[in-house]
């Protein structure tokens, strides 16, 4: 579970949690929580992680919905 896409990118770069965490200036434990999806990074941190691992930082915020505003558009009203 967690952010498998993030783990895959990090592994493809042959980097450890510690290496990524050091480069983005956070603890190894905090990076692990982000990768495990226990914590969500803010925009600034998402940008730093994306820059270090070479991916679009907005991936952290894609596919997010909530009970009020689910991802599908079935609740949306058509604007005329």
TrEMBL record:
Q: Which SMART domains match?
A: HTH_XRE
Q: Which GO terms describe its molecular function?
A: DNA binding
> Where on the tree of life does the source sit, at the highest rank?
Bacteria
Note the Gene3D superfamilies from the entry.
lambda repressor-like DNA-binding domains
Per the record, a Pfam family? HTH_3
Annotated HTH cro/C1-type domain ranges read: 6-60
List, alphabetically, the InterPro entries matched.
Answer: Cro/C1-type_HTH (IPR001387), Lambda_DNA-bd_dom_sf (IPR010982)
Q: This protein is called what? A: XRE family transcriptional regulator
Query: Organism source for this protein?
Result: Paenibacillus thiaminolyticus (Bacillus thiaminolyticus)
